[in-house]
Design a protein that fits this description.
Layout: E1 2-4, E2 7-9, H1 12-19, H2 25-141
Antiparallel strand pairs: 1-2
Length: 142
């Protein structure tokens, strides 16, 4: 009870208890609504089960989406690895071709140098011979 300005105020349950002695207001209400509570409780339970099933369905959908994302990620990772290996192999092959081409060019350069050197030596020998002939002719003229 609350006392305000000397007047006693009583809440609804206590007032009912005073008016109907021997019967608790909560109990009387429950007894009168017992038949209506059961269908309500059943409906509430059914809705709860339905809601829980919906939540589980949403969780399952989310898990399936996550699985799909993980699978797609793994597939992309495999494809990326294949691409990287393929490109590395192509780079190695290209490097081998460059080395081989370089060796061929070097051989051709050496061959051209040897040919030029041989021709130069022949030309020098020929010129040396001409100079000797000229010197011998000049010495005979003296």
């Amino acid at each position: 009870m609350q006392n305000i300005d000397g007047i006693a105020k009583v809440d609804g349950k206590k007032k009912l208890a005073v008016e109907n002695p021997g019967i608790d207001p909560g109990t009387s209400r429950m007894l009168s609504e017992r038949s209506t509570i059961t269908p309500l409780q059943e409906e509430e339970r059914r809705l709860q089960v339905e809601y829980l099933a919906y939540q589980q369905q949403e969780v399952d959908k989310q898990l399936e989406r996550e699985r799909q994302i993980i699978a797609a990620k793994e597939a992309a990772k495999k494809e990326l690895n294949k691409t990287v290996r393929r490109k590395k192999r192509a780079i190695k092959e290209k490097a081998a071709q460059v080395v081989q081409s370089s060796m061929i060019q070097r051989r051709e350069l050496y061959s051209a140098f040897d040919t030029a050197q041989t021709q130069m030596i022949r030309a020098l020998h020929a010129r040396k011979a001409e100079v000797k002939v000229c010197i011998l002719q000049w010495q005979h003229t003296l």
